[in-house]
Amino acid sequence: MKAFSRLIFAVCFLIGMITQAQNNYPQNYFRNPLNIPINLAANFGAVRSNHFHMGLDIRTNSQENLQVVAAADGYVSRIKVERYGFGNAVYITHPNGYTTVYAHLNKYFDKLDEYVKERQYKDEKWEQDIIFSPDQFPVTKGQLIALSGNTGGSAGPHLHFEIRDTKTEECINPLLFGFAIPDNVAPIISGLYWYDRRFSTYEPGANGIAVKKAGNVYTSNVVQVNSSQISFAIKAVDKANQGFNLGIYDAELLMDGKLIYHFKIDKVHYNDTRYLNGCIDYTKFVRDKMSIQHLSTLPGMKLKDYSSGSDGIINLQDNEIHNIEIILKDIKGNTSRLTTKIQLAKNSDKVSSGDKTVKPNEAKTIKTENAEINLSKNAVYDAVNFTMFEKSDPEAVSNAVVLNGSYIPVHDYFTLKIKSNRRLTDEEKNKTVIELNYGSDKNIIKAKWNGDWAEEEFNRLGTARLLFDNSLPSISPSWKDGALISSGLLRLKGTTKIGDIESFRAELDGKWLRFARVKDDFVYIFDEKCPKSSGSHTLKVTTINTAGNTNVQTFTFSR
After folding, report:
1. Which of 40, 83, 180, 220 allows an S-S link to 340, with CB 3.0 to 4.6 Å?
2. For residues 416 and 423, what is the distance between their CA atoms, to the nearest angstrom?
């Protein structure tokens, strides 16, 4: 019997060790990817537009071209060159099962940079996504791999750094790997909110509660609510000694000492990062630029490995006063606590929703006379009393179709169909785009036609319309035609009346020339393709806009 007990103990111990090993990340295996101390501008899990921040943004002291080095031994397994997103990026695969990513770079190390350049000229294409074998570009820990920059979707010089599970491609919080970043500052709480969960969190929305601070302890007055079903949300940031507003790593909600809800942001896959919109008060984020995180699970929020405990909805069974405690921790264990009390004062009557309610986990088609939207079962995180109507628009070849407004998120792509308000010729259809205006920006896509109906897919709500566009895209050079260029580059500015420049091709004296796209500009840095004292040159530029209109322009210069 004793031998059997010892065997059971040994098996349980082994299982525990295996489980612990799977949850432990190697400490001090990866080094700082810069040769200056790590100073964070953003951490893993910080709230961003339609996604979690998936790595660390490391400050480069407002400078570009700092040395970026390999965080550990491995090999360059991939590079990307793109207008937005990561800009220029390097992926290094390591033998311990992880891949590190370095983004917004200005330049790769010489041999890699030359390889990418040769591929670009071979493909006659600036944007690239290249996969490498382990023997092509092996690197050692601390080896120079690139120079830092401000390329892609970057608002200022910095290095974006990620650690991914090579097999699953999940992004893992890099701070779990033991980087030496001093931090003795607890999260800062600036707001508490409650929601009537008999309704959607979108309507009637958040109810604000004033918060008072004393050290790392926060309090509020007794919260009187008029619903027996409520949830909480918190407005808070982590400062981490460095001044920037970082995201919250760990949050717990307790009532009368019992855990009601817990979230922790350890890992997220890029396929799931849009679930952020179901973790925050999206309306407040878009309309008021406020980052408020739910301490509950919305019914359509399906991000795995994020939350534990119950769904966070508090069911008040009586009119007694109940104790609420919210505990926030950063990855170093610095802790803030908010304590308050809650009481059900009066249970107001619940109002039923209309027949246009879109619910999580249910597909829905909504139609007007000249438009139709098809939402998948994954479209919404919480119930939406969906409003859709048409209004006349003299600038468009359709009515403007209002799709509920931009303050409600959708998780995946929906299909939108709009009927033109007059019969269009095939030539006119071929120059028609669908514009979706969601307030802060517009998404403009070339229309696909089925009879008089245009169709496309979008993942934002707003106001949509059909626009006929026969205008030409245009390129403006930074020099006068025929001028002698003394600077080290050529810069062209692109403009369109509607949409974007979807295609750009430059030829120098009849041969393709590598221009990089920097936001709306196109930039060529002089190299051996156009050496000094090479005389007069002709630059032919062909651009195509979203509607498919093509413009060919010719410029001359000399060196």
Report:
1. 220
2. 19
Count of domains for the chain: 4
- Let me know if 411 is exposed, middle or buried by CB neighbors in 10 A (0-12, 13-18, 19+): buried
Do 50 and 148 lie in one domain? The reply is yes
**Calpha distance 39→60 (Å, rounded):** 8
pTM: 0.91
What is the C-alpha to C-alpha distance for residues 54 and 273, in angstroms, rounded to an integer? 8
Whether 164 maps to a domain, the answer reads yes
pLDDT digits (tens, 9 = 90+) for 414-458: 999 999 999 999 999 999 999 999 988 999 999 999 999 999 999
Which of 291, 312, 344 is a domain's end point? 344
Q: What is the per-residue pLDDT across 120-158, written as a single tens digit (0 to 9) for each?
A: 999 999 999 999 999 999 999 999 999 999 999 999 999
- For 313-365, give the secondary structure using H, E and C: CEECCCCCEEEEEEEEECCCCCEEEEEEEEEECCCCCCCCCCCCEECCCCCEE
- The range of the structural domain enclosing residue 340 comes to 188-344
CATH (domain of 203): 2.60.40.10
SS3 content of the chain, % helix, strand, coil (to 5): 10, 45, 45
Q: Are residues 377 and 493 in the same domain?
A: no
